[in-house]
Amino acid sequence: MTRLLPERIETPRLTLRPPVPQDAGIIFAAYCQDAAVCRYMVWLPHASVDTTRQFIGWCIAAWEGNAVFPYMLVRKSDARVLGMLDARSTEHGLNVGYVLAREHWGHGYMPEAVRALADTAFLQPALFRIEATCDVENRPSARVLEKSGFVREGRLARYTMHPNLSPEPRDCWIYARSR
Ligand SMILES: CC(C)(COP(=O)(O)OP(=O)(O)OC[C@H]1O[C@@H](n2cnc3c(N)ncnc32)[C@H](O)[C@@H]1OP(=O)(O)O)[C@@H](O)C(=O)NCCC(=O)NCCS
Questions:
Q1: CA 39 to ligand 1 centroid distance, Å
Q2: What's the predicted TM-score (pTM) here?
């Protein structure tokens, strides 16, 4: 099987690689139970590491399908896991989502990872469009996309449920890079 995306993507400061079971305990401690990190996510903070283990198990299995590509972001200088970036196949491209432990915000790690992922994806002749959505109040996430060369295409009304903010679906920005 030819993979749509490679198992490893290198950036100047990061290696993107598939998850392994040991990552569950690391990301549970680093951010999965952190309400500030989860604020704009589609999931609730994990109550126990068991939830994170289930999630990582699902991520590992997802790599078999060649449609969902969850990457761990590992810092090269000290091999620390900083967060995750995942890409999901769409008709002619990918939809991406990402999260970083709070300790590592503000160093430009996520734009570096998202730009590298998009650059790598566009080496595939079948991929033309990389898109992402974010809550209209999630300024840091919008900045990640702008700094990664994505263009804001519009506002999607009542588009995504962000259960940490409201029981009702919320408006999102949609951003894309295309070739
Ligand atoms: C969104 C996120 C991945 C940004 O990654 P990052 O590597 O910190 O990105 P950058 O360093 O380029 O900073 C992006 C923006 O975050 C904000 N920011 C920077 N440092 C920050 C800090 N310490 N605390 C809060 N926000 C900060 C700024 O608005 C910055 O934009 P600027 O560069 O124009 O000033 C990270 O904030 C995060 O994991 N948030 C929680 C999960 C989430 O919301 N994911 C996206 C769902 S759509």
A1: 12
A2: 0.97
